[in-house]
Amino acid sequence: MVHRIVVGAAGFIGRPLAAYLAAQPGRLLLVDSEPAGAPAGTVRGWHAVDCRSERFKQLVDEFVDGAERVELFHAAGRVPHLARIATNDVDDFRTAIEDNLVTTYAVLRTVAEAAAAHRVPGAMLVLGSVGGTRAHRYKAGYDAAKAAAESLTRSFALEYGPRRISTRAIAIGPISGSSTTSGLGSPLSHRRMPAPSHGGPVRVAAEGSFASATR
Known about the structure:
Pfam families: adh_short_C2 (PF13561). This protein is an alpha/beta fold.
């Protein structure tokens, strides 16, 4: 049986993804540090927990045990408020790195180590951002974190690939209703992908990326 983990399950992308995966065969573990309640349509395996905590490690270890395959969708992260990041505040920069890079590392390491320990093959998918390859005014910390997260996935792919655990990053582009801005810092109002839905970018990410990981 496939065991799937969604980190950031209460977020903009994570919520519709969790609802979509809840309708699929297999077990589901939903995690978010924000106690916002379970996403609509999902009633199984919901936990409000910090993914850098020992409790998260325990949850993942117990969840992976007995699985035939484990799949992680890491959709956690936080876009800094433009009014704050526009200042030269080092603490805001550090927060952006912590929320979007350190957290990603902690999640990937926890899931990969649990899968390797239980000898379970799997696939880990990180929600990236166009900020990883393109500069945006007022988002230095966020863009730097997303670029580093892409590099991080390559490191994990090299380290855990021999253990039958693949690691990928995907950037699905600007989305309607999100806080994505242009390179000059102004809100984008055109040429966006539709808001996440079961049949939109979320399904493409969930099915296409994991399917390719099995080949």
